[in-house]
Amino acid sequence: QFTSCCPAWVKFAEHNEAEFLKNLSSCRSPQQMFGSLIKKHWAADLGKKPEDIIVVSIMPCTAKKFEASLPHFSTDGVQDVDLVLTTQELARMIREAGLVFEQLDIESFDTPFGFTSGAGVLFGATGGVAEAVLRAAHEFVTGEPIDQINFEEVRGFKHLKEAKVEIAGQEIKVAVVHGLGNAKALLNKIKEGKADYHIIEVMACPGGCIGGAGQPISPSMETKKKRAKGIYNADKLSQLRKSQDNPVVTKFYDQWLEKPNSEQAHEALHTAYANRGRIIGEDIQLLTSKQPDKVDIAVCVGTCCYLKGSYDTLKKFMTQADEAKVREKINLHATFCLEGCEQSPSIKVNNEIINGVTPDQAETVFKEKILTKLKED
C-alpha cells in the first residue's frame, strides 16, 4: 500500500506508474479531507450552502494548488478548497500588512478543526506519515494500545528508510522514500522482484513537505533538518500523540460519517485514481499470440521515437520474428508513448522498458531480450 497524501506523487503515479494505482491508498490528502468535511457537513450544520463558505489552505506545497483545482474534489459543483496559499505567499502577505508576531496576543486554534494530535503534525517530515500509521496500526489490528510511540527507523534524511514492525505475530515491512527520482528507483526494484513491502510512504520533495516548493528556499539540508526537528518537538509537546486518540475525529465519525469505511466516509474522505498517461489504449496490434507463455513487445512510434527510427526498429522486429520462426509466440504492437522521450527510441518487453533501441540495435536487442525470454519459457 502506497501513501496518497502527496499530490505530486499521486500525479506522478497516474501519469507514469499506472500499474501501481491499485496499491495507492484511496484516502484523500489532509487538505482535501478538510475541505470536503467543511463543505459537505460543517456548512450544513451552520445552515450554510457550500458556496457560502470559503476554504483557504496554507501549504508548503505548490502542487496543492493543482490538487485543489481538480474537478472531482468538489461539493455540488463548488471546489472543496477554494484557495491555496504557500507559506512564502502567506509570509509576504503578513509582511505587507505590517503585522508583527511578537506584538500579537497568543490564542488557541478554533474548534473543532484546531484540535490536533502529534501524529498529524508528523506528516510534514519524510517518514512522518509512516510513523503515524504505525502508531495506529497496532491498536486497530489488536485492539490494544501500543507502548512504542517513536519509530526512529523511519526518521532522518536517507533516500530510502526501512523498518520492520511486528503486529499480532506478523512482521510488517515499511519503506519510506522522498524525492521522485528515489521513488522511481524503488518502484523499479519492486517491478524486478527485488523489493517487497507492506507500506510505502512516498513524498515528492526532499525531506518531505518541509522541503516543499512553497517553502522559503534554502539549498542547505541543515535548514530542512531544523524544520524536521521543530516538527518532532511539536509532536513531543502534543497532549495526544496518536491520531486515533483525538476525540474530535471520533465525534466527526459519530456525527457525520457513521463509522470508518462507511459510504459517507468514502464520499467525504476518499477518492479514486486513473491512468493519465498521454495516450491510453491506442496500440496498433501487428502480431498476436494466443500462447500462455507469449512475450509481449511494444515499440513506441510517438514523435520522438519515430524521428529516431522506431518505425524501422518495428519492421526489423517483424523480420527477426519471421527468421526465428516465433511469430506465433509473441505479441508485437506499436504504441504511442512509453514516457522515455529523452532516451528514445523506446520499447517495452513484458514489463521491462528498454531505451535507445535504434534500428542498428534492433537485431541484437531482439536476440538478447526477446529470444532469450522465449527460450527461458
Keywords:
single chain, 377 residues, alpha/beta, Fe-only Hydrogenase (Larger Subunit), Chain L, domain 3, Glutaredoxin, 2 domains, five-stranded mixed β-sheet, three-stranded mixed β-sheet, 13 helices, elongated
Task: Summarize the topology.
Layout: H1 7-16, H2 30-45, E1 56-59, H3 63-69, E2 74-75, E3 78-79, E4 83-86, H4 87-96, H5 118-121, H6 128-142, E5 160-167, E6 170-178, H7 180-191, E7 199-203, H8 221-237, H9 247-257, H10 263-269, E8 284-287, E9 295-300, H11 303-307, H12 310-323, E10 330-335, E11 346-349, E12 352-355, H13 359-376
Parallel strand pairs: 1-4, 6-7, 9-10
Antiparallel strand pairs: 2-3, 5-6, 8-10, 9-11, 11-12
Helix pairs in contact: 12-13
**Total count of helical runs of at least 4 residues:** 13
Q: Could you give the order of strands across the largest sheet?
A: 8-10-9-11-12
From the spread of the alpha carbons, the general shape counts as elongated
Mean pLDDT: 91
CATH-assigned homologous superfamily of the largest domain = Fe-only Hydrogenase (Larger Subunit), Chain L, domain 3
State the helical fraction: 25-40%
In N-to-C order, the SSE pattern is HHEHEEEHHHEEHEHHHEEHHEEEH
- Which second-level CATH architecture of the largest domain applies? 3-Layer(aba) Sandwich
Q: Would you count the extended β strands for me?
A: 12
Report the structural category: alpha/beta
- Beta content: 15-25%
